[in-house]
Amino acid sequence: MISTQRDTFDPHVQDRLLIVGTQWAPSGLVDQVRSRLSDWSVSVSDTYLKGIADVARQRVQTMLVYIDPSQTRLSRAIAGLREAAGDEAKVVLCCRVPEEPAARQAMAGGADDYLIFPFFGHELEQALGIESDGSEVMDHLTSTAAPLRKLADLLATMSDTPKAMLHCAADVIKEALGATGAMIVVDGATATAGETVTKPVLSVPLGQGVDEAGPNGQIAVNARPEGAYTPGDMDALTHYARIIRHVIAAASRQRHWQRLAVTDQCSGLANRRYLYERLDAILLEAQAERFPVTVLLFDVDDFKSYNDKFGHHAGDAIIRAIGDLFREHSREQDIVTRYGGDEFAVVFWDAEGAREPGSSQLHHAHAVLDRFVESLRNVDIPEVTEKGGGKITISGGLATYPWDGSTRDELLKKADDALLKAKRAGKNRVFVIGQSEDDTTV
Asked: If DSSP codes are grouped into helix, strand and coil, which group holds residue 215?
């Protein structure tokens, strides 16, 4: 049960609230206040100057003032509202998260408190000095304990796939509202928890009232098994939508930076860090499932001469062309990386698991190399060919788990040894560990 502190107000102005600064306020602010304070008389003033006049005219002693940080002399405007209303008035500022520093500074004008929009729980009532008998607070804490645990689970899914995150978010909403089913749609992807949502009872845009860039979407819920939703439930749904939007955006940024951390900028291939992580994981799987893994190291013959003759932009064009060609001729599961400089590393493996004795995986590596080298003979790189450059060739070395090594370092070392043999044998060839230097494979 909510009751107002009537003894601090003029009996002619009690239960009146003036919202000042609605010209700059986000959509939904006035509606949310009126929904929560349904037994109050709520009026609005679009600017601070008009608010000062309306306070005196309407004899209002409770104000909610929206902060616009682009306005100069905010503190003086708040002081003017305070003076017009009197010392006994309640002046509460309101802002969104990015504007919180401006709200704290504007408190110097004589405000009693400030709130972040959208409001959650009983924040609005508490800031305005509206007392509660405690039962609603206890009910709120009891009803939100499980959803708060679910929010922690949602944060834990930030490193998972976007699909897993959305399903967890839908589960958060379902439990928070006590709905039979919840649905979340983000940028065309849909996830549902509980019953399928065909006729939503409540629905809000993802992150309503938030202007910052982020994912677009919708959250909707089915009816409850018992009882109707209240205005407070709509407030809670809006608040959860805002939190989920921020979490999804943060996870997207995290995945973006993770991709950048393992991607070579010039070639667009995975880099050495990614090679090490994936090769270690593949070798563990190969040990358990008993299948071979082949590593190829190769580089561009006389690469330095291209940079010296035609400039580094020509060298970059060669790196990009080789990366594109090798990806084109490899299988989806093969790992193609830029190892460093003009050197590339490729991991050939079989995602389906164990193979029969006499595996032809090494033959597959040779087949890929044959197709790649043939394409390389015919590729046109304008930065080189238009300046009279010759055909590009490569030299490489192959090593295979478990025969040539059992660890990442051992395989890369053996492949590098074979690469050096290919160079000594005259370049434009690929060697396999144990192969004679007189025997070329490409």
From this structure: coil
